[in-house]
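Module 6 notes. Inverse folding takes a fixed backbone as the condition and produces residue identities as the prediction. Think of it as a translation problem where the source language is geometry and the target language is the twenty amino acids. Below is one complete input and output pair. Work through it position by position during the lab.
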């Protein structure tokens, strides 16, 4: 088992508004909003830590789904709602299709990074008891990649990144997809990222980590399953951890037994949320 750790975190801030439609499901709410960035409605769920007292706010984390998934996955396939209640963390699970959480390089109507940062997050802050000083972003697989790119591109907003089994080799790995046995992903990835490798630099996690002001960098929590079906996933995490360590960015990386599966993510989401919660006291 590999565990790299560097401790401490940074602060965050953001603000503003929206309109809403809510259906209660215990401590989990179904919500949606029209996003100017996508010119359509985005659906999401919110896991509330408690009914709470008036005026109380909670650390809030956006948890992103993986490729082929949707905003219901986290609440349907894990106990994230119960963990949010137990750990007093507010969780938001947005829907983003197979967007890779970037503003598409080829489709001007598919601005998913903008939809999350400019549309969804201000709406959540205006309608839910989220502490704007304690915001995080996390995700699995495609969502792990998205959490890293959005978090590193917006360190003024997010103080924590929680990444699980992320596809950190995207987009620079597009030319070698056949080597990974994933040639079938090439058309979809090229549609999102385009064919220009110079443009990829703006959304490649290692490049973002290498360029960020370390004093402003979010705390990065990473976990990857040793038995992941794609061996490059573990190798790319180790390479990324080397970049973080060399730059002096505060992080921790865990390699634990498990595959690229919901059983694994359901087990590992608890430690991720607890780390996010506990870092409130050392920011």
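Target side of the pair, the amino acids:
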């Amino acid at each position: 088992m590999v565990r790299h750790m560097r401790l401490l975190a940074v602060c965050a801030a953001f603000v503003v508004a929206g309109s809403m439609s809510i259906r209660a499901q215990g401590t989990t709410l179904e919500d949606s909003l029209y996003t100017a960035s996508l010119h359509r409605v985005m659906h999401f769920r919110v896991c509330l830590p408690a009914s709470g007292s008036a005026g109380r706010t909670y650390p809030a984390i956006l948890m992103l789904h993986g490729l082929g998934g949707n905003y219901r996955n986290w609440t349907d396939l894990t106990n994230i709602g119960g963990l949010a209640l137990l750990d007093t963390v507010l969780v938001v699970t947005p829907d983003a299709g197979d967007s890779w959480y970037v503003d598409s390089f080829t489709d001007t109507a598919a601005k998913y990074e903008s939809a999350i940062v400019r549309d969804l997050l201000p709406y959540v802050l205006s309608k839910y008891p989220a502490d704007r000083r304690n915001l995080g972003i996390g995700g699995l697989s495609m969502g792990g990649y998205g959490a890293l790119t959005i978090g590193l591109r917006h360190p003024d907003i997010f103080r924590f990144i929680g990444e699980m089994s992320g596809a950190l080799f995207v987009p620079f790995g597009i030319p070698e997809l056949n080597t990974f046995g994933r040639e079938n992903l090439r058309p979809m990835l090229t549609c999102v990222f385009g064919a220009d490798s110079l443009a990829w630099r703006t959304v490649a996690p290692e490049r973002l980590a290498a360029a960020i002001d370390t004093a402003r960098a979010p705390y990065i929590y990473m976990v990857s399953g040793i038995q992941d079906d794609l061996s490059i996933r573990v190798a790319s995490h180790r390479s990324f951890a080397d970049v973080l360590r060399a730059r002096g960015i505060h992080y921790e990386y865990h390699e634990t037994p498990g595959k690229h599966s919901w059983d694994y993510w359901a087990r590992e989401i608890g430690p991720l949320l607890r780390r996010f919660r506990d870092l409130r006291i050392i920011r």
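Reference fact for the lab report: Residues 231-247 form the longest helix (17 residues).
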